[in-house]
Design goal:
The chain is α/β, with parallel strands linked by helices. 47% of the residues lie in helices and 12% in strands. The protein contains 17 helices and 7 strands. Helix 4 runs parallel beside helix 6, helix 6 packs parallel to helix 7 and helix 12 packs antiparallel against helix 16.
Length: 315
């Protein structure tokens, strides 16, 4: 949330064009009742991505799926993993894990409405419902309703007493439980998520499950996406940092011309020179204080001047 917007995904596609991308979680009510044509701008003129939605009302979920089908999304992912209090208050996210029949009903009506593949992202448990049987029953019931793709965050969610940030580190990680799930549901596509920060870890998980989802680390160290592309798709040509930044500047100008704040684009570019000489100056150029006092087109030109002086370093 707040990170993998369309501007980040544009950059991510330059770094790793073969990596599957997802939107942040969007409430189904927002899709159905928004008056500002949210989805028309959310992924306009970009490649097909998975859209992550939250909801529990079958009628609204079906309508949201119908609207989604008009745009370039190739998967609808129902989030049953977010533990935030705000999400819980809407009785969606991780709170829905205790109501597999509701999730199953949503899968059924959405499957009838659209042909887009459906998936579920969830935890291995919630609160005291953290034994394997609980997870097994949730997957079994929702799979029987028509979902054959599950993305499992390998830790349970605590719905009371800790923040969403703490929910990503305090409950212990349990990859083995996800591996067991794949053994029991060989016919399902099972992906794993949670604290996966290296190529070696990804390779290990691939021995047991069908896919790996990278969350926070993808924007904390966006160049990791390029390492993934280089490692798993070695025959594909990688763009140089110089090419990526130039493509981002063209995109930034297009967005600026449409009245979009350049900060929404450049904030994702901080890590592109990580580990190189001039990285600190690069971050200062992109820094919010300077951006607010500098005209957008002047900022684009300053970035161009900066990278042109370092072109040999960046190609």
């Amino acid at each position: 949330m707040g990170h993998t917007d369309r501007h980040f995904r544009f950059m991510a596609n330059l770094l790793a064009k073969d990596v599957k991308l997802y939107t942040p979680m969007i409430h189904a009510d927002t899709i159905v009742f928004s008056k500002n044509q949210l989805l028309e701008s959310e992924n306009i003129n970009q490649k097909d991505v998975g859209i992550q939605i939250a909801g529990n009302n079958t009628e609204v979920m079906a309508k949201a799926a119908s609207i989604i089908s008009n745009y370039n999304y190739d998967e609808i992912n129902i989030n049953i993993g977010c533990p935030s209090q705000r999400v819980q208050n809407c009785e969606v996210g991780a709170a829905l894990m205790s109501k597999p029949s509701v999730v199953a009903d949503c899968i059924r009506v959405m499957s009838k409405e659209v042909d887009i593949p459906l998936s579920i992202k969830t935890r291995i448990g919630i609160d005291d419902h953290d034994d394997y049987d609980f997870l097994f029953r949730f997957v079994e019931e929702t799979a029987n309703a028509g979902c054959n793709h599950f993305i499992i965050h390998a830790r349970k969610a605590l719905l009371q007493g800790i923040s969403p940030k703490d929910n990503r580190r305090i409950p212990p990680i349990d990859y083995e439980r996800v591996y067991r799930l794949k053994k029991d549901f060989t016919e399902l596509s099972i992906e794993i998520n949670g604290e996966i920060n290296s190529i070696e870890e990804i390779e290990t998980h691939f021995e047991f499950v069908d896919g790996v989802m990278i969350g926070r680390y993808a924007f904390k160290d966006s160049l990791f996406l390029q390492k993934i592309q280089e490692h798993f798709y070695p025959d594909k040509n990688l763009l140089s940092k110089y090419e990526i930044i130039n493509a981002m500047l063209v995109y930034a100008k297009e967005q600026t011309d449409q009245g979009i704040s350049i900060h929404l684009v450049t904030r994702h570019m901080n890590q592109l020179l990580k580990g190189l000489n001039g990285a600190r100056q690069w971050r200062n150029i992109l820094g919010s204080n300077q951006e607010k006092s500098m005209h957008s087109y002047d900022l684009i030109q300053e970035i161009k001047n900066f990278i042109n002086k370092r072109k040999e370093q960046l190609i």
